[in-house]
Design brief:
It is built from three helices and eleven strands; from the N terminus they run ααβββαββββββββ. By secondary structure, it is of the alpha+beta class. A hairpin with a 2-residue loop joins strand 6 and strand 7. Helices cover 26% and strands 28% of the residues. The relative contact order is 0.18.
Length: 276
Amino acid sequence: MLRQRRKPGVLNAVKELDSFPKVPSSYVETTASGGTFSIIIFSLIAVFVVSEIVYYSATSYKFRYDVDTDSTSTLKINIDITVAMPCSAVGADILDVTNQNAEKFGQLHEEPTYYELSTRQRIYFDTMKHINTYLREEFHSIQEMLWGYGFTNIYGTGMPARDSHHDKHPDACRFYGSLHVNKVAGNFHITAGKSIPYPRGHAHLSAFLTTKDYNFSHRIEKLSFGDIAPGIINPLDAEEKIAKQNYHLYQYYLQVVPTVVNTSKYSGTTYQYSMC
């Protein structure tokens, strides 16, 4: 019985314990301006709390550089290039320092086409070129957004089909597909004449071509290495060169590095390259 009589007293003492004395309610006057100010303060507190939660849960990026010790696997090259020469007058091949037969690397598909794009195709290609130019210039400032949001195809579904017909024969050749090459220094080239392989290399048969047959104007829709991965920018995508002379040649020097991507949306190995 004594414990039951003392318990209410202890609870009341705890309830009355307050380090900050409260103002009696009769002294408090509510106003519209005070209520508005309180709403603003609580809204700011909510915004700060949400922003801190978002910042804490956001992915942070850490880049690490290691030496590639895998020299036995092959490197995949994805190509989609159109050259302003008929398929019968131009060929594409690969030659590396091992002097292996080029046919071991695979074969690209050849599609006779027209170099001049239709209106819809030109709009698509120019838009693609504008986007890729911007990404190349601003990559270092937006790279975290590219890695984080997992963009893999920012150009849409690809080049639209031609909506106009030509009466003349195709004047260009489209090379597209994938090749698997050795991880050594090599040379991928598209040049005049069809390739003739032989045991220690190959040659291009161009003796029957005249000066007017040469036109190395070209359009690169895609040139990438490895599998498609988010955040990877291919510098030569949507690149186009118009030759002003028949024998004008173009050369691109590339440096390719393997890249391991490990994010919440993608995990795998691909490759990046830069132009020298």
